[in-house]
Write a structure and sequence with these properties.
14 helices; 2 domains; D-Maltodextrin-Binding Protein, domain 2
Length: 372
Amino acid sequence: MTDHGHGLHRRVLLGAALAAPAIISARAQSRTGITDELVRAAQKEGVLSYYHNSDIGPTGLWTEAFSKRFGVQMKNMRLPSYPLFDRWLNEARVGRHLADLIQITDPTLLSHANRLGFVANYAPDGGRAIPADLKEEGVWYGLFTDPMGIGYNARNITPDEEKLIQTGGWDALADPRWKGRFGTATPASGGSSYAFCYMFLVTLRGRYGQPWFAKLAANKPDIYASKAPLFERLAAGEYAVMDQGSTGTLSDYYLKGALIRWAFPTPTPISMTSQSVCKNAPHPNAARLFQEWCTTAEGQAEWLRHTIAGATRPDVTDPRRATKADWYSEPWFREPTELYTSYLKDEAFADPKKPVIAEWNEIFGYQSGRKG
C-alpha cells in the first residue's frame, strides 16, 4: 500500500497516453438548467450509472428522490475515493465507458483527470450559486462539505472518557487509554482520509506531525482500507473511538438508533464531495440532468434530509438547526468553530503521488490487508 500514490500516478499517465479525447454525443441544449428538453432526453435514456464514494444509505435515499422526480433509474456503485478514481480511469483509458458521473472527495484528482481529457466540460445552471473556491467551472462542483471529528460509541466509554473527548482536543486521541479500543483508516482510502492526515502531517506538522501520529500508532488501532466498515464496527460496539469521523456517516448511524456521538476538535478538517460528468458518459443527458439537480437548492436540501452536512450553496441550510432537532437537541453536541479548508487550494495536496500515504504507512507499519 505504501506505493499506492505512485501506482496511481503511473496509471493516470498511461491512461492519458492511450485514451484519445472524445466529443460527447449528447443532444445540444439551447440553454442550461433543468429544461423540458433535457428531461425528455434523460428519460429516453432511462438510466444513470453513478460512481460515488458517499455513504450507501443516504446516497440511496437521495438518488431515489431524483429517480422519482425525473423517472430516471439510478445504478449506484460505491468505492472509497482513490480506488474508485483508479477504477474509473482504468476503464476509461481502454474505452470501457461505464460511468456517467464520478463523485469523490478529492477534487484535485478531478482537475487532473480533466487535463487528461476524461471529464466533460459542462456548467450546470445551479453551479453559479456555488462559491468559486468550491468548484472548477465546467469541470467539478463541490456539493457538500462534511466535517470530520472524533467519533465514539457512548456505550463503550465512561463519563470521564467522554469529557476527555469533548474537551481534550485532538490530543485526546493520543491518550493510551484507547489502546485496543480504537479504529482508523489509511489515507490511501480516499480524499477525506487523506485530507485528515494531510492536516496533521503537512499543514500542522510543527504542532503534530510524526510524533503525534506515533502516539496514535502506539495505541495499536485496527486499520481499515475503507472507512465504511469502520463506521459500521464503531456503531456495533467493537471500538470506543475512531479518528477521521465524518459526521455525515456518524449521523446516519445516530438516526438509525446507534449510541453514536462525536466531537469537533479545533481545527476541524472537512471533506468535500465533488462531482464531474464523465467525458464519454454512456447516458450523457441523464448525467447532465443529475448534475443540474445536484447543484440546485432542491437537490442539496434533499441531501440534508438524510444526513448532516454543509451544502455548498449558501441559500441551503440544515433545517434541524433552527428547530433543534436530532443531534442539535443533544447536550453533547457542539458545532465546529474553525474549519480546515486550505488544502483544497494547496498545490502540494494536489500531487498525484500522494506522499502522505507513504509517510503515514511507515509510522503505522501498515502494509495493507488489515481489516476493511
